[in-house]
Amino acid sequence: MYKASSRKSDLLLLAGFTVAVLLAPFILGPVGAGYPDLLQKFAIFGIFALGFNILFGLTGYLSFGHAAFLGVGSYAAVWTFKLFSMNPILAVIIATVVGGVFAVAIGFISLRRSGIYFSILTLALAQMSYNLAYSVLTPITNGETGLQLAQSDPRILDVAFGRDYGAVLPSSDFFGIHMTGYPGYYFCAALFVLCFFLSMRIFRSPFGMMLRAVKSNQNRMRYTGLNVRPYTLAAFVISGMYAGLAGGLLAVTDPLAGAERMQWTASGEVVLMTILGGAGTLLGPVIGAGVIKYFENIFSAFNEGVLEQIFSFLPEFLQHAMVSISSMFVGEGWHLTLGALFMVIVIFLPGGLMEGFSRIWQRLRRMTKRDDDKPVEPSSVPAE
Fold it and tell me: How far apart are CA 185 and CA 35, in angstroms?
């Protein structure tokens, strides 16, 4: 009975998530987030956060170098466009595989330690990768300028099938459908739903239970004679593949790969997304990614002119005061708003936004149950 109800709830969660992703342009339109470029970021960084959550949320291993896989995936996708075809299918497959292979190499080294030592190792290896991409490997990465498409690229498969882009610089297209605007979003959205489904299966599987046991008490598992490294390495590689896929999708929607995607700030961003939404939950990292990208793209666009319009109903001296104060938290200072929000979440909701939603839901259920348990007053009308 429990398994049947659990499967039913998982199906409802997956169905609700799919509907929300597909209808996102209409749902997020009223809050100014329904345009395709931002929706693509929601989907791509949602995938990135889902993968990071498999490692951090389940095993407790905090990686500060996950942006390395994001950058490697972007480079792999752009090279696929340059050498083989502008079709994004091959690009995302190669980006995912390359991200996984790179994760095997980094995970094999960094997982020899745990705790803060693991985090520092991942940060160091990611920064080494960034510096290699920025300077040493410039013939492959094009260094500071970034890897871009060119008309002279061979594109072997496109040429073999008679595809000619002429004098126009090509863009990625899915069998003739250009991956810009809403078609690009729905391509990312389809993979987003697939990644969410795979993440759900991992969370519910015996493998996911083993990863939770690693997080709970790794030493006790070792004392029983169980080698936990294959499990943690598998989680690390799966997480790296998610990040590689996200990097590939960044190149699909904008065929450019730069070393800045491998910086430690990008790694810190996915940590914030996961903690803000709720590490170890299915929906938490997705919500966290959406909140941060919304703040980044909406709040950062506010300037003094917009603020003056917002506070135009106030007297002039109050208007100037409110504009001066609020301008510190929007525009270039939007990170202050994000930092304040993050502080509030960490202090009052250590489990992230999902803990807040859970508290509200439990309180509503208690209120409903309290109303149902109230005794019914007897009728004052005498019985006939």
Answer: 10
71: Cβ contacts below 8 Å, ≥ 6 apart: 129, 130, 133, 247, 257, 258, 259, 261, 262, 266
Model pTM score:
0.91
Give the separation between CA 89 and CA 380, rounded to whole angstroms. 73
- Per residue in 188-225, pLDDT (tens digit) is 999 999 999 999 999 999 999 999 988 888 877 878 78
CA 202, CA 323: separation in Å to the nearest integer?
A: 48
DSSP 198-224: HHHHHHHSHHHHHHHHHHH-HHHHHHT
| Torsion, Cα of 52, 57, 63, 64 (10° steps) | 80
Provide CB contacts within 8 A for 76, sequence distance 6+: 91, 94, 95, 97, 98, 99, 244, 247, 248
- Percent of the chain having pLDDT more than 90? 53
At 37-88, the pLDDT tens digits run 999 999 999 999 999 999 999 999 999 999 999 999 999 999 999 999 999 9
Give the closest residue to 74 by CA, choosing from 125, 147, 153, 158.
Answer: 147
Per-residue burial over 326-360, b if 16 or more Cβ lie within 10 Å, else e, is: bbebbbebbeebbeebbeebeeebebbbbbebeee
